Amino acid sequence: MTGILQTQSGNGEHPTAAVLVIGGGISGMQSALDLANAGMKVYLVESSPAIGGKMAQLDKTFPTNDCSMCIVSPKLVEVGRHRNIKLFTHSEVKSLTGDAGRFTATLVRHARYVDVGACTGCGLCEIVCPVTQISHFPAPPAEGEKKTRARAKEKRIIRGPGLPQPTRSQKWNFSVDNSLCGMCGGCFKACLHGAVSWEKKQVAVIDQEKCTGCGACFVACPEKFSAIAIGQAADLEKSVGAAVHARSQLLKKEFKGTGQRDCIRCGLCVITCDKVMNISALKMVEEGIEAGVDICQVCGACVSVCPVNFLAIDQVTNKVPRPLLNSFNEGLNGRKPVNIFYPQAVPRVPVIDEESCVRLNSGACGTCASICGVGAIHYDHREEETEIAIGSVIFSPGIEVFDARIRGEFGYGLYKNVVTSIEFERLLSASGPTSGTVARPGDAKHPKKIAWIQCVGSRDHSCDRDYCSSVCCMYATKEAFIAREHDSSIEPTIFYIDMRSFGKNFDDYVTRAKDHKVRFVRAMVSRIFEDPISGDLELRYVDGSGARKTEMFDMVVLSVGIQVPKASKELAGKLDIDLDRYGFVVTDCYRPLATSRPGIFVSGAVKGPKDIPETVCEASAAAEAASASLAEARGSLITAEVLPPERVIDPEEGLRIGVFICHCGTNIASVVDVEAVTEYAKTLPGVVYAEHPLYTCSQDSQERMREIIKDNRLNRVVTSACSPTTHEPLFMSTLQQAGLNKYFFDMANIRDQCSWVHPDDPVLATEKAKRLTRMAVANATAGQPLAEQEFTVDARLLVVGGGVAGMTAALEAARQGFGVFLVEREGQLGGQLLQLQRSSDGRKFADFLGGLKEKVLNNELIKVFTSSEVVEQSGFVGSFETEIVTPSGGTRTLKHGAILVATGAEEHRPEIHGLGTLNTVMTQTDFEAALENATSKDWQHLRVVMLQCAGSRDVDHLPYCSRVCCNHAVKNARRLKSMHPEARIDVLYRDMRCYGLAELDYSRARREGINFVRYDPEENPLQITAEEAGIEITVVDPSVRLPVRFHPDLLVLSTGMKPRDAEELASMLRVPRNSNGFFIEAHAKLRPVDLPSEGLFMAGTAHGPKSSTESITQAQAAVARAATLLSRDSMKMSAIVSVVDPTHCAVCLTCVRACPYGVPFINDQHSAEINPALCQGCGICVAECPAKTIHLGRYGDKNIRAKIEAYSAS
Amino acid sequence: MLPCTGRIDESLLLTAFENGADGVMVVGCLEGDCHYVSGNIRAKARVKRVYGILDRIKIGPDRIRMYNLSAGEGSKFAAYANEFVEKVRELGPSPINLVRAGQARAVSQKEAT
Fold first, then answer.
1. Chain B closest CA to A359's CA: distance in Å?
2. Whole-Å CA distances, A152 to A81, A147, A182, A188, A692
3. Is B19's CB within 8 Å of A757's CB?
4. What pLDDT digit, counting tens, does each position of A668-686 carry?
């Protein structure tokens, strides 16, 4: 089936203002949001069943230890609800034709078997599905042959410690339908309790006194008669499978904790095998259960319905069971064929697995469809193709981890207690398979000594993974750190080559980890041996002194590297974009987001290993790059929501509250008596309507709610359902669609807070649900209509700083159609790049800068102010005013909607080792300049020593790592070597931090004969004398463990990078900088180029040390973020803001002091005032105000008191 | 539910006791991790002040406590809730509730006689 979603692929004039984003990880999500919020239509294609990617699998994130799921889930929800992002999950891109600006893509949506529109995500299907294994399905009958059931030839009797103890609990009633009975006597023979009486040619009769309700008769009755009827079985009207599940659940509850190990002859396993799975491999016998092991399809249903764990999967079959593993949990636990990818998944809609679902393979079962309350399950779904028209493509399919089995010496896959780092993330995760308990997979024991082995599948030529994976040093440190937080008796050890903690605040994090007893050992582990009895692991390695060591550990975590999955490489082939030999997308260092095919852009780790903030930054940058050439058509394909006018509530009008108590399928209703809560709600003051929908959030319920609001003229609405975090926006928008102010609403969470946490106490859970509903009703009663204020937006951008980041940003913003003011303090544009000579691939920076400068100066949308400085700044997002002093000494006021800070950094020049006094001592930048003219003979046999971390990672100088120096040294060393192969170069380093693909240059440098010698300021310090007479350096070379002495002709210092002075600017903009002078981002992980105040962004080295390519990326990212504001005519602000009532304001300044964002000010009316555009809505001032004259939207004293009073009222 | 623990003040906390609470838990972000920079630190100070007040009016400071949690620590929240409920159970009903119950009893006895 092919549906054309977009036929207007441009009328020949304008490009298509839509972008296809491939990959729904954090990269694709960020790109999609930035594009959709800047007026572009987005199609987001994800191959897995839900968006979220690798980040959703992580437990915490470095270096802040933020909970990964907590910070990513708001993004998931935002993408899922965005009206201009069309999600294609469980889908793939089949082909792409056309050219930049006018592509056509064909997407394939794989059969999901669940209707995404109808499903409410209640998860009931997954709960009732009895299948846990990948079955060996019986072969389908040959054509023309009748379908017959196989008969068992090999039988095994499964016995417990004692004989079966038949239970009558929750018993079903079996009776014979006389009109159907075939008088065959099958039931009589099957009954083990003598409850069936039968004689030849007579109908059978069941003696209810003797019957235990095992159902042996029901199973024995031939299908052609089907004469045994079941009575008193809950859910039987749905299906036998549903009824089995219902009884099994009740029996499980009853036998929980009783230690029952004998068969209770409930008959559920036999009924399931025969009536649900159509197999008939099981039979009840005197001693237990008889299994036909040769015909068993090994689906696992009998085991999962057994209430007392009497059966085990390997007992019922002679085949090898193939458990169905949860891929989101890295196979550490099982799952069902119908499965919601992970609890917070968006869309929270299951997929039915074609490989293991019994219904899809043999036609039996079908239990999930029978139980689904909204009829969302369709076994006849087929794959669908859709064609879309787009202008650009962003390729961000993400990465997978290295297959650790390839490094056989570590025993992964053989030794159970050797796990990969991503598996360990799942073990740490509170929503993981062990609920966050650190337990060994082998025996669930709590490990004490855990080892991390670094560079497994990274920096490893033997398995063709020569590159560095960039993130492993930090994630291993984090995992070790967090493991100790879970259990302080854990002793973590990290075995590593170089500690590559090169990012912002990463070194501090490693230091903190060391203080928290994480042990770091610089050594490569050569082998692991397992003690087969204890499961403990023996690690062998050579330590720094050269001694061979063996050490025992309880558990080993392999820090696996990242790689491009095969499928992504194939897709790149279809899209016709160039990859390098490892599968990473090839880009140019000046155009870091563009692939080899025009119109296709790339972001994330598929372009080279990187961490989350770098990925987020690239994702925004790719959004910018992808939309710049489509800017003229911006807004042409998006739709805005049209709402009916809001009904003004007459103050005289009495309260008319409607209450909706949700069943959530059985999620709530199986514990909480929702009918009782509904009846109770009707008694509450003001309530005129109450009902209890099966799924309040389903499409039809929402439509109904809209009608009910109108028909009953409701003026308040309350739902008692699930979490407001996920569902409140939905219900609020329904209120708006019904013409009611959305703040006339409150929500009680009776699922998470009642049915989920008190499943064993339904009476109290119901009482609690009543109480929470009562509180929500009271709060809704106190509700006020709130208006979201609208502000017009000035579509111009102020860029402060005219280096490579500032110029790139200015140019890109102009391409996006925005006016730009570019203010540079110096007399000429160019910044620090003017001091540098060549890019990593040998091209001259001067050529690049020249071109860039020309474009900036000739662009009519860009107004450049050199030798100018910002002196005053006021206003707020969308309408700022900035005063600058121009070279003439006069001031100018610039009006603009957003600000981009790109004030840059410069080379640090400490007075150490003779720098500044000796000609023979210079910085890397000096050396790079000198190299340009290094053609004379003097250079041919030059002896050069490069000293890394000279004044970096040093508390007396720059305490942080400058990130670029190792690569800088390698670049310059290789250039000298290529010019003069006889020159001798020794690089003295602490850790070579050639992260990502730069590792390849580092290993090339080593192969080319450049010598690298490691030192350590504490354990192996350098002795340096640098005088006019010459330079002498002595250090112990760890590779030979002997002191070596250098007498270089030149000493080149890698001194690092320090931010330019921006103190005044920071205080004018009221944005924070860290102790090193770099600006602090709004969120270290997910808002890397946003400053904490709305409308302010940053790019380049003002944020932290980085390369020119990284600065260009950040500049584009910052423009993308600014475009989400500048592309709108007006902005709506949250209505939840603090408002000062001036009548009682005593101008005591308490609010001014209390506000963490510095928003309140004293206006000319002598009252405090809070600008709603700047207020974040935390309510701190409300609580602090001694006059109680500040009010916060729906969190006023009135609301909170109403809730408290309702709490205790009865 | 509040946007930030920084929103609550002493009078609201005391309102809860006035309305019959035997104990009050305030749960905010981890220190240093406040979504609104410093709201939880202010809340901590206010909770401390309420300690003092509860102590002076003989309700006892142990009936209020502030906890810090991240959004991902559900099981820890449950453990804290159980721990606090246990503590309050040991303390028994708040004197306010005892007095009110006493008065109610006295009134009903009076009516009976």
1. 36
2. 53, 16, 25, 21, 49
3. no
4. 988 999 999 999 999 999 9
Task: Tell me how far CA of residue A957 lies from CA of A533, A907, A909, in angstroms.
Answer: 53, 13, 10
Q: In the 8-state DSSP scheme, what is residue A1143?
A: G
Say whether pLDDT at A851 is over 70.
yes
**CATH number of this structure's domain A125-315:** 3.30.70.20
Instruction: State the Cα–Cα distance between residues A24 and A31, nearest whole angstrom.
Output: 10
Cβ within 8 Å, pair B8-A1200: yes
Q: In Å, how far is B7's CA from the nearest CA of chain A?
A: 5
Compute CA distances A430 → A424, A752, B29, whole Å: 12, 16, 17
Residue B4 has its nearest CB partner, among A66, A431, A1178, at A1178
Q: How far apart are CA A70 and CA B72, in angstroms?
A: 6
Region of residue A731 (phi > 0: left; psi between -120 and 50: alpha; otherwise: beta)? alpha
Q: Which of A436, A1192, A1204 is the closest to B7 by Cβ?
A: A1192
The type of residue at A595 is T
pLDDT of residue A10: 43
Task: State both tokens at A139.
Answer: 């072969």
In A, minimum Cα distance to B9 occurs at: A1183
Q: Which of B2, B15, B42 sits opposite A1195 (nearest CB)?
A: B2
Kindly state the tokens that stand for B44: 């901590």
A809 vs A651, which has greater pLDDT?
A809
A297's tokens: 């399809």
Closest residue in chain A to residue B3, using alpha carbons only: A1178
Which residues in chain A touch residue B37, judged by CB atoms under 8 angstroms apart?
1156-1157
Measuring CA to CA, how many Å separate A544 from each of A495, A515, A521, A1041? Answer: 12, 21, 9, 9
Residue A436 has pLDDT above 90, yes or no: no
Q: Which residue in the set B6, B37, B73 is minimally distant from A430, CB to CB? A: B73
- Cβ-based contacts of B12 with chain A (< 8 Å): 1197, 1200-1201, 1204
Q: Which residues of A touch B46 (CB under 8 A)?
A: 1183
Annotate B36-87 with three-state secondary structure: CCCHHHHHHHHHHHHHHHHHHCCCCHHHEEEEECCCCCHHHHHHHHHHHHHH
Instruction: Of A86, A236, A119, A76, give the one whose Cα is nearest residue A172.
Output: A236
* Nearest in space to A431 (alpha carbons), one of A547, A493, A341: A341
Domain A2-110+385-398+565-633 sits in CATH 3.40.50.2300: no
- Identify the CATH assignment for A1136-1208 out of 3.10.129.10, 3.30.930.10, 3.30.70.250, 3.30.70.20: 3.30.70.20
Task: Tell me which CATH homologous superfamily contains domain A403-562.
Answer: FAD/NAD(P)-binding domain (3.50.50.60)
State the DSSP code for A554: S
Residue A78: Cβ-neighbour burial (10 angstroms; 0-12, 13-18, 19+): middle
For chains A and B, count residue pairs whose Cβ atoms are closer than 8 Å.
85
CA closest to B33 among chain A residues: A66
Which residues of chain B make contact with A436, given a CB cutoff of 8 A? 75
Q: In this structure, which topology does domain A907-1058 adopt according to CATH? A: FAD/NAD(P)-binding domain (3.50.50)
Domain count, chain B: 1
Contact A1201 B8 (CB under 8 A): no
CA distance B8 to chain A (A): 6
Residue A520 sits at φ, ψ, to 5 deg, of -110, 125
Distance from CA of A1178 to the nearest CA of B (A): 6
Nearest CB partner across the interface for B75, out of A435, A1180, A1208: A435
In this prediction the pTM is: 0.88
ipTM above 0.85, yes or no: yes
Q: Do B19 and A1208 touch (CB under 8 A)?
A: yes
Q: Which two tokens stand for residue A502?
A: 């090169």
